[in-house]
Amino acid sequence: MASQGTFSADAWARNAAAYETIRGMPFNAELAEGTLSRERFRRYILQDAHYLIGFGRALALAAARAPHPDRIVQFAKGAETAIVVERALHGGFLRDYGITPESFSATPLSPPCDHYVSWLLATCYGQAHEVALAALLPCFWIYAEVGRDIHGRAVPDNPYRAWIDTYAGEEFAAAVTAMIEATDEAAAIASPTAVEAMHRAFTHATRLEYLFWDGAYRGSNWPL
Prior knowledge:
The chain has eleven helices and no strands. By secondary structure, it is mainly alpha-helical. Helix 4 runs antiparallel to helix 5 and helix 8 crosses helix 11. The longest helix has 28 residues, at 38-65. The protein is globular, with a radius of gyration of 17 Å. The relative contact order is 0.19. Pfam families: TENA_THI-4 (PF03070). It comes from Methylobacterium jeotgali.
């Protein structure tokens, strides 16, 4: 998806080992095999529904600060997709798992989810626009790559097929490509210091992607 010599290509290369760890981690391996327990997927989908609300807010902040009208539209539509379209997917799973709106609201964000959402919102509000885009990009890109990878090795009649098909699909891939292009566009006119700040944000978000899936797998919770 990334063009050679761009920020995105460099960022992916710097974090390639982290992506391989994410691709092979137990949650994603068992998801592809269709052996992931219902309880683990339930924990994941519940926290991901919370996360998407925060992610939508972060995209809305990026839209408000975008320098070009086309990018305002892109990020605003991304916020709408995070809240409306993907929550429709999650809504089906939530119903299947007996999660009511009341129980969803009563469930606190897990430590990884809380960290990720809080950091994204702080970055999109308080850091330069180009750094905000670098912080948002891994959620798009890593999900697309993981979705495509799992789609290629998923067992037939996988119980999580709806999730797999969403993130391996062409519509999501187009959104990822647009986000990569926007981030590279911002990096191309950023100072070397700002580009390094972008790399730090991209790497931190990549680590948080790992922690999110790992937390759902292990049942990460607040000790107090």
